[in-house]
Design goal:
The protein is an all-alpha fold. It has a domain of 31 residues. 86% of the residues lie in helices and 0% in strands. The chain has 2 helices and no strands. The chain is rod-shaped and about 115 Å long.
């Protein structure tokens, strides 16, 4: 009885162990897969860079707008003085 149980367990184990997979990925499929992977990595990287840079760009725009207002105000006052 013990021998038959051991034999059955060994047979089940031998049948469930995967064998060598005989698969082939051709060069066309492999290059397509690599191209899609690179495109995905590039898109994610670009998105992360733009999200990281967005607050800096916003700050620079506000700073430029703040510097531009006094210059336009002085130009407007200079024009008004010339008219008088």
């Amino acid at each position: 009885m013990k021998k038959t149980e051991i034999a059955i367990c060994l047979m089940v184990a031998a049948l469930t162990v995967p064998g060598t997979a005989m698969a082939y990925v051709g060069p066309g499929a492999g290059l397509s897969l690599l191209g899609a992977l690179w495109a995905l990595v590039a898109a994610l990287g670009t998105a992360l860079v733009f999200v990281a840079i967005w607050p800096i760009r916003k700050m620079l725009r506000r700073r430029r707008a703040g510097q531009a207002r006094p210059a336009t105000a002085t130009a407007a006052s200079a024009r008004a003085e010339q008219r008088d």
